[in-house]
Specification:
There is one protein chain. The protein is of the alpha/beta class and about 375 residues long. It has one domain: TIM Barrel, CATH 3.20.20.70. Helices cover about 45% and strands about 10% of the residues. The chain is built from 16 helices and 10 strands. The termini are far apart.
Length: about 375
Amino acid sequence: MTVITNVEDLRVIAKKRVPRMFYDYADSGSWTESTYRANESDFQKIKLRQRILINMEHRSTVTKMIGQPVAMPVAIAPTGMTGMQHADGEILGAQAAKAFGIPFTLSTMSICSIEDVSKHTGGHPFWFQLYVMKDRDFIERLIDRAKAANCSALVLTLDLQILGQRHKDLKNGLSAPPKLTLANLINIATKPRWAMGMLGTPRRQFGNIVGHVKGVTDMSRLSEWTSSQFDPALNWGDVEWIKKRWGGKLILKGIQDPEDARMALNSGADALIVSNHGGRQLDGANSSIQSLPGIVDAVGKQIEIHMDGGVRSGQDVLKARALGAQGCYIGRPFLYALGAMGGPGVTKVLEILHKELDLTMAFCGHTDIETVDKSILLPGTYPT
């Protein structure tokens, strides 16, 4: 039996168990993947200061994100097609997050619908991520559905007006529905655990879209609709309209530049997420952890700042916190865990991250996450 000790262990198992087209969808970036790799490697350059002979009893990682209590400064990121990593993936992820005490964010492009996730979490509040489509009537209804499901925050993604070119997806024929080439069918045949799970669930299409858009009644009609719907004309005026329609906590995702951060602040949002979409959009852009300090300096005293991209350990969470992020999001670690072990895998990855965060915080001389700042980092090793 494999002893799982870190996120990489889960990734290795997921690669064996998830069909190539869906594993590659989760574990890839755009073009040369330089930004995707930098998101992770730039964390490794940051070094920690070890302290000794400090009372390490009674440690706490409890904090708040947008005023909501969280067991640690981590949320599950919105990830498209989560339910293709493992049957009923979004439901399993939301249930694990609820039990652990952290936020779960459901993607617009999820397999399980808003209503389905809400039903299977007993109406427990989760966050909903919104992509803005040209069909504004659909977007209005989507926002209203999130309200009706008691979602406690809306995460508005701003960096997908156009789609970055992801070479692995093109080579694998990943589309909606996926192209069932001979190579893909042979690969799926080698993943019996995954296949049995998918055969055992009715959830195999985009639950927030199919049946909710005029003319889109099944997966065969979905590809044409989605390819024409991401809105390249999206602007700050649309953010104002969405904020008014939503009326609740609003988080803006995809901020990489201090100037855009100031615009986000002026929009009246409650928080922003420093993010480059996991290196899946503009290849050659800064890593998220490199961009974080400049944005914190620009607006960090006036708006809550979160970050995602490259978080692979509790140490990474602590480093981001030290550099001014109130919380982090995990996308790929969540998907690896789900693909590897389903719901128990998600619980496992949260336990791993929490233990790494808790122990590293103690080694750095702190017992409360609220007291962590740049003093835990070695000067000259972190971005400024």
